[in-house]
Amino acid sequence: MTSILKLTPLCGVHDENPLCYLLQFDEFRFLLDCGWDEKFTMSYVENMKKYAHQIDAVLISHPDPLHLGALPYMVGKCGLNCPIYTTIPVYKMGQMFMYDIYQSRQNTEDFTIFTLDDVDAAFDKIVQLKYSQNVPMKGKGHGLTITPLPAGHMIGGTVWRIVKEGEEDVVYAVDYNHKKERHLNGCVLEGINRPCLLITDAYNANYVQLRRKLRDEQLLTEIFNTVRDDGNVLVSIDTAGRVLELSQLLEQYWQNAETGLQAYNLCLLNNVAYNVVEFAKSQVEWMSDKIMRVFEDNRNNPFQFKHLKLCHSLSELHKVPDPKVVLASVPDLESGFSRELFVQWCHSPKNTVVLTSRPGPGTLGRMLIENPKMKTFTLQARKRVRLEGPELEEYLQEEKKEKEEKKRRESKAKGDESDTSESEDEMEVEGSSFPAGAKGVAKHDLMMKGEGGRKGGFFKQAKKAYPMFPAPEERIKWDDYGEIIKPEDFMVVEMTQAEEEKAKAEGEAAAQEEFAEELTDVPTKSIVQELTLDIKCRVVYIDFEGRSDGESMKKIMSQLKPRQLVSN
């Protein structure tokens, strides 16, 4: 029996919007990607909300926000509750993407669209898979099997193959790259032959890409010309995807003594830089054959950087002397450290800004790509400032009221608990202590006078022994000099006193640290300023997106020969 297929595009059709499609196999509904744009435009998720409770499984292809950015909002605010399938690197790097973008927004504004708890709740639902692992669906999806295949572009990137038992297969392939790179192999589409339906994107259909060698040379030339003129280079890059390719390239340049770049500094700046590099070190088996050989032969992890310095704040970056090359997130320059550095560095003609990908329309990064010779630009700059004067007093009073209210509720709750426990004890004594169906004096563990036994008698009765709690008395051993002393008894006492002193000292230190934190933890507010920037720095776009171009896509389509093709 032939299945009924229905594809409903929720977002990402005939434009550059984030990707999200609803694929229905009979009664089973897949959500193919769950992306959001750089500005978190609410209109993109309106259609997703309607289907949130009907979705049976979510398939994620890449770890960046354009493919999974709406997951925290859908899970935390819209009630999406189903398994989410993706590869192990997409799970780890996707978390880094969302942590970084949340913190980048929170550093300058009151970001309330989703929280870090929403991010964790969304990623708790993820089922982590390996490439070519067949996973059968359950319930309404009985007979359906999903298989992740390598897609290139980003680590863990996936081409999804969905097969119905005894029928044809459906392939979902977006943002793939067939070419081998430094840290990734290309996508694997040779094993797929004439799928029943191929769902893909046409993002680069009319785009002609320069050869990789020319792009690398262009980047190296820009860096050379800038740092030798005592200028700084800002390379806007994503958090945990394409940054791995670019960091590998620049690390190789710095390792080569002939380039002369070792005299200058190379930095990676984002909120999760350390975690991204650590995750990359642990995911070598997901990378290119060349990296695998280097690791196996020399036991040398290619992401054990010797020249790339990891920075997590602008204060850490400012400690690194100029001139320097900085890889900063995010690529659209709408938020994050890249935006702040652009505002600081764009006034100097010595500096260079390198844009490595094409962000969405309307973003600062896209405007600079389309108008690289733009001289002035007006933007809204958000930043946090400390509360002062009446605002600070009002904030502290409200905080004090909240604490008092919280203490009052806690004390009331404790009082209710104690009242409840006392009433339960009384009920036990009054009710359960009597024998069933009998009325009289309650029985006790310790026998009371007048309880049990007969009064008087002909024979003299022995003294009654009332039951008592067990209290065995240890017999004291003596020798010629008196009681035998156990040295360990005194050692235990001395150790206990030492431990108490240590615990007391630790408690005092913790209290002092907590007090210091309270002093330094000054409340802040977000303000918006309108800035007019005089752009005197050099702005250049070099394509490091890692996607197949139009010519390559046409060749791949002719090889696959899908029976039906759906392209956005």
Description of the structure:
This protein has 568 residues and is α/β, with parallel strands linked by helices. The chain contains 15 helices and 22 strands. A 6-stranded mixed beta sheet has the order 1-2-3-4-5-6. Strands 7-8-9-10-11-22 form a 6-stranded mixed beta sheet, with no helix packed on it. Strands 14-13-15-12-16-21 form a 6-stranded parallel beta sheet, sandwiched between helices. A hairpin with a 7-residue loop joins strand 7 and strand 8. It is globular. The relative contact order is 0.12.
Describe the SSE topology.
Elements: E1 5-11, E2 20-25, E3 28-32, H1 43-51, E4 57-59, H2 65-68, H3 71-76, E5 84-87, H4 88-106, H5 116-124, E6 126-129, E7 135-136, E8 144-150, E9 158-164, E10 169-173, E11 197-200, H6 212-227, E12 233-236, H7 243-255, E13 265-269, H8 273-281, H9 289-298, E14 308-311, H10 314-318, E15 324-328, H11 336-345, E16 352-355, H12 364-370, E17 376-386, H13 389-432, E18 478-479, E19 482-483, H14 487-520, E20 524-534, E21 538-541, H15 550-560, E22 565-567
Parallel strand pairs: 3-4, 4-5, 5-6, 10-11, 11-22, 12-15, 12-16, 13-14, 13-15, 16-21
Antiparallel strand pairs: 1-2, 2-3, 7-8, 8-9, 9-10, 17-20, 18-19
Helix pairs in contact: 4-5
For the sheet with most strands, the description reads: 6 strands, mixed
Radius of gyration over C-alpha positions, nearest whole angstrom: 34 Å
Output mean pLDDT: 82
Instruction: List low-pLDDT spans.
Output: 428-455, 511-520
Any idea what the shape is? globular
Strand order, sheet with most strands: 1-2-3-4-5-6
In whole angstroms, how far apart are the ends? Answer: 29 Å
Q: Share of helix among residues?
A: 25-40%
Q: Count up the helices.
A: 15
